[in-house]
# Entry
Amino acid sequence: MNIDPVKDLDGKVERLKKELKSLETRVDNVQTDAAHNQLSQTNQLKDNTRKLTKTNDRVTELAESVHRLERLLVALNRKVRASETKKANFDDWPEIGEAEIAKILKGQEAYARKAFTPQEAKDTRKAIAEYDRRALEAIEAAEALTHLPPTAEALWRKNYQQWRAIADQERPEAPDDDTHAKDTVAKSAGNEAIAHTRQLIRARIEDAVARDLLFPAWFENVLGPAAPPGKADDWLYTATDVVLYRLLHDVTSPADALGPAPQEEGHRKTLHDRLTGECADYRKP
Amino acid sequence: MAADPFARLADRQQSLRTALRALQAAGPGSPDFQPLLATANAEVDAVMQARRDVEAARLTTPNRAIAVATTAAALIVAVGWFDAWSLLSLLVAVATAASVLVDPVGRRFFEPLARTTAISAALAATLLTPLASGWATLVTAAGIAWWAWRTQR
# Structure
């Protein structure tokens, strides 16, 4: 114990200084530790990320090879089945006659045909009446040409011009009242024929599925080896349409189900596009 | 086919009458109206051509005569009433007369009479030249315009 208060204080300060130093040292130590820890953790993280990337690549590779194997398997499956399984025949349809197909095509034509609106029909009729009136006038004018004296040039000129007014023109096509009725008949006949044909085709496809027959190559190419689970009805519907398309448009390629895409717009192109899209959906893994 | 233009015209008119009768019998609505119309059109053209031939036969000589008269009058006027400004009218008139002399009736349906009009205008212009000097060219020009208008349409 010091009697001198100053010295006492000095001693206290010294002590405190020492304590402070030791505290500083500890703080420094802790900081170094923390930094060390952080570094090692970062390293670990990096390591893990690298590993993960590697695994990812590997998985991708594996997936690819699985796809390859799947394709091989499908082909192998086909080959194996081809040797002993009966083949489904979706190419010959003796029960669907030419007449039936003609009906369907007529119906499609009828749907595609542009119908006259009443106003258009009225205008066309008016134009026809006008044409007929002028035609009669022109015939009268030409009749006059058969007995005019050759010197009456003004009359010749007038009548000749009246004739020219009609000679170069064509009579507008009459808006056939029957067309509408005929089209309606063709449409309903086509609808009936299509429903009947569809039924036949679907029955045969269902039968092939039930008996586990080997589908034709074009069929499997476009629709896959089987219906995707839970979509059997849609798949059958599309399959029926594909077969019907081949039948209607005379596609006979053994590998290409729908044949080349049609160039001109129309019912056929619409159907082709629809079937292409739907079939791509069914083939998706 | 008759060689005489009048007989040929009558002939053509007769066959046009037949064609028109068929056309009338068919009526505008019938399916063979268009081919009949084409036939009748050909007949009408043949009749027009026959009438042109008649006119040509009638007008060849007068047109030539007027052209010769125009040339002669132009020479007389050029010598007797000499004037540089008048020469324009005279030259145009002589040129018209030359073309009419070469081809007095033309080839189109209404050309023979149109050529008569043009050459008459040229003659009138030549005779007017002593009074109107160069301005008489306008008369010839009007005649040529008339010819073009009647022919081209």
